[in-house]
Amino acid sequence: MRAMRFHGKGIPLRLEWVPVPTPGPRQVLLRVHACGLCRTDLHIVDAELTDPKLPLIPGHQIVATVEAMGDGVEGFAPGDRVGVPWLGSTCNECRNCRSGRENLCEKARFTGYHIDGGFAEYAVADYRFCFPIPAGYPDRQAAPLLCAGLIGYRCLRMAGDAEHLGLYGFGAAAHILVQVARWQGRKVYAFTRPGDVKGQEFARAMGADWAGGSADLPPEPLDAAVIFAPDGALVPAALRATAKGGTVVCGGIHMSEIPAFPYELLWGERVVRSVANLTRADGEEFLALAPQVPVRTEVAAFALEEANEALNALRNGAFNGAAVIVVRDTD
């Protein structure tokens, strides 16, 4: 099969021919249709996440059909369309797993990081960590739901019942989350890079009540803010815009150093917290919710062999919404 593989920092992904994987116990062999591109993929190839398997097939927002099954697979059959997220396996035994916090499992393994992912024509995955894809979503529109959507949804849950919600960094996750938040009756304030008029127009078109630069203050104090951009300087900026008792949620897996800020910004029972990974319960809840909204994803499509160009486009903010690697065009 064809696969785009990562061999180490500073080396572009290589299009290579590799054997089609064989499913082991509790694994499904998947024929990949599409795989969403995520900022986490950039953190991996830029070596900001430092423990990938090498060589590695990246990609963790996989939409595929089941081709074959290993022993012990239940609930799926050949031809079923499934989605594969970032969380690839857990130990199911540690304190975190037993308490419903499998996203914090110390032995967790992640798709497209520890496990070969979806920048390839085939992949294998543990069936227990796969989700049925909601009907009505074409492959390329479904792919961003599997990380941008799931992480955004978990961030929204951590934001509580905030009526006035700020979103810092209006990319793949925020363009999904704004739709869910507005459907829930919240007011949404979008923050982009200063001067990014195009991004602010896109945010308003997706439902934001207001859009401005990351250094701006919104017209009303925020009850909560979610930071998706990996810029630590946004933490004090978000605190400055957040009312007493509010929460600032850091939704990324990696962020640059947070600069010192005066205690006054945190005082007043404000909270700063992170969101790590996802649970399978998050996936089940969000994928049931998405068709009700209904969530609409804006997608820039790239061919498999264009994965490096897609990564550069993401790095440079060259598109609105989400990027998707189309492996098998069925839409």
Structural class: alpha/beta
Radius of gyration: 19 Å
The top-level CATH class of the largest domain is Alpha Beta
In percent, how helical is the residue content? 10-25%
How many β-strand stretches?
Answer: 17
> What overall geometry do the principal axes of the alpha carbons give?
globular
Number of domains: 2
Which strand-content bin applies to the residues?
A: 25-35%
CATH architecture of the largest domain: Alpha-Beta Complex
Average pLDDT taken over every residue: 97
The named CATH superfamily of the largest domain: Medium-chain alcohol dehydrogenases, catalytic domain
Number of helices: 9
Q: Which spans have pLDDT < 50 for at least 5 consecutive residues?
A: none
SSE topology string? EEEHEEEHEEEHHEHEHEEHEEHEHE
Measure the end-to-end span. Answer: 21 Å
Question: How would you describe the overall organization of this protein?
Answer:
It is a single chain. By secondary structure, this protein is α/β, with parallel strands linked by helices. The chain has two domains: 2-146 and 278-326, Quinone Oxidoreductase, Chain A, domain 1 (Alpha-Beta Complex); 150-274, NAD(P)-binding Rossmann-like Domain (Rossmann fold, 3-Layer(aba) Sandwich). It is 22% helix and 26% strand. The chain has helices at residues 39-45, 95-98, 139-142, 148-158, 172-183, 197-205, 234-241, 280-289, 307-315, and strands at 2-5, 14-17, 27-37, 62-69, 81-84, 87-89, 109-110, 122-126, 131-132, 164-168, 187-192, 210-213, 222-227, 242-250, 271-274, 299-303, 322-326. The strands form four sheets. Strands 3, 4, 5, 8, 9, 16 and 17 form a seven-stranded mixed sheet that branches. A six-stranded parallel sheet has the order 12-11-10-13-14-15, with helices on both faces. A two-stranded antiparallel ribbon has the order 1-2. Helix 5 (172-183) links the parallel strand 10 (164-168) and strand 11. The longest helix has 12 residues, at 172-183. The chain is globular and about 55 Å long.
